Amino acid sequence: MVGDRVRWQATEDEGTIEEVLPRRNLFYRQDEIRTKSFAANLDHVLILIAAEPEFSEHQLARALIAAQAERITPIIALNKSDLVEPFGRAWNKLAPYRRMHHGVLPLSLKASGEADYASLMKLLAGKSTLVLGPSGSGKSTLTNLLVPGATVLTQEISQALNSGKHTTTSTTWYWIDEARTTGLIDSPGFQEFGLNHIEPMQLAGLMPDIAEHMGDCKFYNCTHLHEPGCGVIANVASANATESAPGAISASRYKIYGELFAELSQKRY
Questions:
Q1: What is the pTM of this model?
Q2: Terminal-to-terminal C-alpha distance of the chain
Q3: According to the model, what pLDDT value does residue 118 have?
Q4: Closest listed residue to residue 249, CA positions, set 258, 237, 261
Q5: Four-CA torsion 236, 242, 247, 249, nearest 10 degrees
Q6: How far apart are the C-alpha atoms of 258 and 188, rounded to whole Å?
Q7: How much is the CA Rg of the chain, to the nearest whole Å?
Q8: What is the dihedral of CA 10, 14, 18, 19, to 10 degrees?
Q9: Contacts of 171 by beta carbon, 8 Å cutoff, 6+ apart
Q10: Cβ contacts of residue 28 below 8 Å, gap of 6+?
Q11: C-alpha of 40 from chain center
């Protein structure tokens, strides 16, 4: 797996892997059919989304949950800040995520300004980071910016489908610096992100805005869907009136929680 640490034995012009060392984490997704592993031993998952094409909040939430489950720090980056109106809409849509202390980094990779480059390098320095995101978000452009000579192919967004064309077909590790202390991992674009490896009752604890209010529930095994005395439900009710209130759970986030809980409760073993 990309990111694995191994012991290997050199044999003339080749080598043999003798041992794979224990992993501290593995970032992956799982649906009813298969498991797709991205990379191991990560410090960050940089989730790159764009103002155009419009990103899926559902897919963003799924990626954040998968990172949280493996105790990997997520970074959300919103690309195409040069597109003023679409970027403004997307930035507002991300308000719940800015309140969850994930932070959202604004980028304009097309302009590739020095400020954006400096901000990225400050976050990534000395770390191993997987770049994750839907096709068309700018992952290959980001890799070309940070790793000159990587020759990652880029393509224009398919206007007909309003979704990106897949250009990266494998997961690849790049060293950003000559000292080889900062690793960047480029991954293929995806349209679905299964969470079948997550148990339904784990879900709330992996969504920070919901987990914050779990201690206020009357019942220890509360599903946060219908129980009386549920601290989460009570907070969502107040959030509808004051979405910007500190600690409020947005209606969209709570809806995603409910839909994911139902999906994971029906999964086949």
A1: 0.86
A2: 25
A3: 83
A4: 237
A5: 30
A6: 28
A7: 20
A8: 110
A9: 2, 38, 39, 185, 186, 187, 188
A10: 35, 36, 37, 38, 66, 197
A11: 15
Q: Note the pLDDT of residue 245.
A: 63
In the chain, at which residue ranges do the beta strands (DSSP E only) sit?
Answer: 6-11, 14-20, 26-30, 35-40, 44-50, 73-79, 104-106, 128-132, 172-175, 183-186
Quickly state the pLDDT bin for 252 (edges 50, 70, 90).
Answer: very high
Q: Choose from 101-105, 106-110, 114-118, 192-196 the range with maximum mean pLDDT.
A: 192-196
Name which residue leads in pLDDT, 235 or 147. Answer: 235
Domains, the chain: 19-186 (3.40.50.300), 200-265 (1.10.40.50)
CA distances from 45 to 17, 41, 114 (A): 27, 11, 22
Q: Which residue has the tokens 């009813």?
A: 32
From residue 59, alpha-carbon distances to 134, 187, 250, 256 in Å are 9, 15, 17, 10
Measured distance CA(1)–CA(71) in Å, rounded: 18
User: Which tokens is 256 given?
Assistant: 């995603």
Mean pLDDT score across all residues of the chain: 85
- Render pLDDT for 170-218 as a digit per residue (tens, 0 to 9): 788 999 988 999 999 988 776 778 999 999 999 999 999 999 999 999 9
Main-chain phi, psi angles of 82, to 5 degrees: -75, -15
Which among 231, 46, 211 has a CA at the least distance from the CA of 127? 46
